Amino acid sequence: MFILANLITAIVQILDILLSVYMWVIIIAALISWVNPDPYNPVVRFLYSVTEPVLRPIRRRIGIGLGIDISPMIVILIIWFIRSFLIKSLIELAFRMKG
Predict the structure, then answer these.
(1) CA angle 51, 78, 13 (to 5 degrees)
(2) How many CB atoms lie within 10 A of CB 19?
(3) Buried residues in 5-16 as b, exposed as e (16+ CB within 10 A)
(4) pLDDT at residue 64, rounded to an integer
(5) CA-to-CA distance for 9 and 2, rounded, in angstroms?
(6) If exposure means fewest CB atoms within 10 Å of the residue's CB, which of 33, 37, 63, 73 is most exposed?
């Protein structure tokens, strides 16, 4: 059973790293959007292509009535919830499988 527990732990750690990196990508994209970047810049295009598929559905659901785009904050809160609840729960499950 410890092999399955170690596999779950490894997968969860990789998922945690990927979620952390994606959260920082969203933060960087939001900060760059404040300065009116060049849309043809490769970095801006990369950030846009990576974040827009996640942010666009949230923007459609909440609407932008305030004039401020809060979709990055919502995605960061979702990532934070996943990291706080799901990741920790899976790690605890893996430890219980070992024990």
Answers:
(1) 85
(2) 17
(3) beebbeebeeeb
(4) 65
(5) 10
(6) 63
DSSP-based three-state secondary structure for 1: coil
Number of domains within the chain: 1
Cβ pair 8, 97 in contact under 8 A: yes
Domain of 81? 2-98
pLDDT at residue number 83: 94
**Distance from C-alpha of 38 to C-alpha of 21, rounded to nearest angstrom:** 23
pLDDT in tens, 25-62: 999 999 998 898 898 999 999 999 999 999 999 988 88
HEC states along 30-56?
Answer: HHHHCCCCCCCCHHHHHHHHHHHHHHH
